[in-house]
Write a structure and sequence with these properties.
- The chain has 2 domains: 117 residues, Nucleotidyltransferase, domain 5 (2-Layer Sandwich); 145 residues, Nucleotidyltransferase, domain 5.
- 42% of the residues lie in helices and 21% in strands.
- Strand 6 and strand 7 form a beta hairpin.
- Helix 2 packs across helix 8, helix 3 runs antiparallel to helix 6 and helix 6 packs across helix 7.
- It binds adenosine-5'-diphosphate.
Length: 264
């Protein structure tokens, strides 16, 4: 049985096709999120990569910010539950998930059997999210994937004191005009996101093993700064940005299994 999960985020659409609830058959990512053609492109992209048609898919489950708007889905589930299911599948030992996406950050606690037990979320402020990093990368004319390379070379990270993205933007521009070292500036930007996320994580309470999911998990600069802030090792789940879509595909599989058990 094939089930498909689609995570329609603020910046990116992600799809995963799961075979028999066990194996990832294909995945796709389009850097365009809710309100764009991105979700449909990701959907058709993953079907074509798997060599499957819509009729071959038993369940299509949508999650993410735009989950209610996707006509191809026959079910939907919250991002919190989907990230929980996805990360538990990928890293069964994980007990704390730190998910930083394009417009929010969540800290999710899992019980020993992988069930969501608690969460704390920042969805009110762009600081401490991917949006903050996107804005800063844009000012510095760097690709988002380059930030970790610069941060790794830093000798003395610059402290970004503004807690608001708009003011921090002015602060970074002012630092640039003073010819501050770019590596130190990028490290300071990563530190700023980590400090905000660590405050969330402390509210939720940290339990090992701590894993990051979401697009920002790929930024080694943020991961390292977060580990320092928390005094705990912070792992990046493989395919971190796909964890919501994976969890949605798992949820579809569980739903179909339940339905067929009732049908017997
Ligand atoms: P959403 O679901 O809200 O669209 P995602 O979990 O897909 O969010 O994460 C999007 C964010 O991930 C972007 O805002 C960007 O900052 C970050 N990101 C994406 N790709 C990379 C990468 N290769 N390296 C570092 N950060 C990345």
């Amino acid at each position: 049985m094939y089930t498909l999960g689609i995570d329609i985020g603020s910046t990116t659409s992600k799809c995963v096709i799961l075979e028999d609830g066990e194996r990832i058959a294909a995945k796709s990512l389009v850097a365009a999120g809710t309100g764009t053609k991105g979700p449909m492109e990701a959907f058709h992209g993953v079907l074509s990569k798997a060599g499957l048609a819509r009729a071959d898919i038993s369940a299509v489950t949508a999650t993410g910010y735009g989950r209610a708007t996707f006509g191809e889905a026959d079910g939907e589930l919250s991002e919190l539950s989907c990230h929980g299911k996805g990360v538990h599948f990928a890293e069964p030992d994980c007990r704390t998930i730190i998910d930083i996406g394009g417009q929010d950050a969540k800290v999710i606690r899992l019980s020993d059997n992988g069930v969501l037990s608690d969460f704390v979320m920042n969805d009110k402020c762009a600081a401490g999210t991917g949006r903050f990093l996107d804005v800063m990368a844009n000012i510095l004319q760097l690709g988002i994937e380059e930030l970790e390379i610069y941060a790794a070379r830093a000798k003395s990270p610059v402290r970004i004191s503004s807690t608001c993205t708009v003011f921090a933007e002015s602060e970074v521009i002012s630092q640039l005009s003073q010819n501050v070292n770019i590596d130190d500036l990028v490290a300071g930007i990563c530190d700023s996101v980590a400090a905000r996320t660590a405050a969330l994580a402390r509210r939720a309470g940290i339990k090992d093993k701590v894993c990051m999911s979401g697009g920002v998990a790929q930024n080694g600069g943020v991961r390292l700064a977060l580990a320092k802030e928390l005094g705990a090792e912070v792992f990046c789940v493989a395919d971190a940005q796909y964890m919501g879509a994976l969890g949605a595909a798992i949820a579809g599989y569980e739903r179909k299994r339940k339905e067929s058990a009732f049908a017997v």
